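Q: What would this chain look like folded?
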Amino acid sequence: MDERVERVDDQDRALGVVSRRQAIQEGWLHRVAVTVCRDERGRILVHRRSGQLSRFPGFYEVVVGGAVDVGESYEQAAARELAEELGTCVLPRLLFTFINRSGVSPHWLGVHEAVVLDAVVPDPDEIAWHDWLTEPELRSALLEWRFTPDSHEAFSRYLAIQTPQS
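A: My prediction, written as structure tokens:
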């Protein structure tokens, strides 16, 4: 079944409800919420998408997320996606939004951060493999593995806003 999403303008204002498939085909802006997950040691969750997914099968990701449903906030969508894909209940914190023009179609991307203290139980229909990587390990992986365009764009912006640890 095709998801229903809100088509939005370049100011992130809702214009109407459309199918996500149509938004992608027409290049209409819609909303996507993703989360960078860290563990208590500061490592970052990286996962490989299932080979059965229609978009970017088998690619790696630094973020967990998906489309924002009609009437949902970015934060609600991010929390829902974490529960669906990782089996964890955590409240992600919205860091920033931007129009992401990489990937299959343009969309508003809400980037969140969450510290995940519990064990994750990935949905095998969505996630084929996962691990926690340190930032240096992740920087190497980003150069060597096939990551989704959203991962590259969101993570580079995420790193740019991080303050050095004191």
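The chain has a mean pLDDT of 93.
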